[in-house]
Amino acid sequence: MQKYLLTIIVGLGLTASGGYLLVAKPFSAAQTKQSSVVFNFPEYHHVYIEQKNVDAYLKTGEFPEGTVIVKELVRVLNPTFPDGSRTEPSGRGYFNGAYNGIDMSIKDSTRFAKTNGWGFYTYGHHPLPYAKTSAERPVAECAGCHLANVAKTDMTWIQFYPILRDKDPK
Ligand code: HEC
């Protein structure tokens, strides 16, 4: 299955945050579960969506039933500066370090009717190993924030994903 890697997100130091495609600027998007936690280092969020579902979104502005979106959380590689960056031959910046979690969302308008057609799952936000299974997470933990902010773009933060955002049919 071919998948698109949509995003790389950097959360600078404070709470989990985002930026996109190949280390863009950080922005502050705190996630409730993490907002009480102060991270010492940034984290990447890699978002994967199957190509056929990206293509469908680009045509219709909605993801097909059965779309699965996976968000992989990855720590930055051994920071040497207080902002979490380090120097490599390409320059000072952020590089992928250890895996640190997996979140997932699934579109099923019947099953998840109460949360605008999407179910939310997490396999842990911590180093490997992850949980092998996940029950649907409560609205307050996941769907609530997506409902409040991105209900109009099919519960997905397409504004942060150039591949979807810049060709948004709407
Ligand atoms: C406080 C707001 C908030 C909460 C709570 C939240 N998210 Fe998100 N979520 C975001 C933002 C902002 C993004 C955009 C990318 C990023 O910052 O990681 C996102 C992106 C995602 C994505 C990638 C696809 C998309 O929608 O853009 C998945 C999958 C996801 N979240 C799952 C979850 C799960 C599972 C939970 C609960 C464990 C959760 N989210 C809780 C704000 C939130």
Could you explain how this protein is built, in words?
- The longest helix has 10 residues.
- The protein is an alpha+beta fold.
- The chain is globular, with a radius of gyration of 16 Å.
- The protein has one domain: 3-Layer(bba) Sandwich (Chalcone isomerase), CATH 3.50.70.20.
- The strands form two sheets. It has a five-stranded antiparallel β-sheet with strand order 1-2-3-6-7. A two-stranded antiparallel sheet has the order 4-5.
- The site of heme C has 25 residues, from helix 1, strand 2, strand 3, strand 6 and strand 7.
| CATH uppermost class | Alpha Beta
Distance, first to last CA: 28 Å
Structural class of the helix and strand makeup?
alpha+beta
CATH H level: which superfamily? Cytochrome P460
Q: H/E series, N to C?
A: EHEHEEEEEHH
Order of strands across the main sheet: 1-2-3-6-7
Total domains: 1
Q: How many DSSP H or I helices?
A: 4
The strand count comes to 7
Which bin fits the share of residues in helices?
A: 10-25%
Please give the radius of gyration in angstroms.
Answer: 16 Å
**In terms of per-residue confidence, which ranges show pLDDT below 50 for 5 or more consecutive residues?**
7-39
Question: How would you characterize the largest beta sheet?
Answer: 5 strands, antiparallel
Question: What form results from the Cα inertia axes?
Answer: globular
* The CATH architecture: 3-Layer(bba) Sandwich
Strand content range: 25-35%
Bound molecules: heme C
Mean pLDDT across residues = 80
The CATH topology assignment is Chalcone isomerase
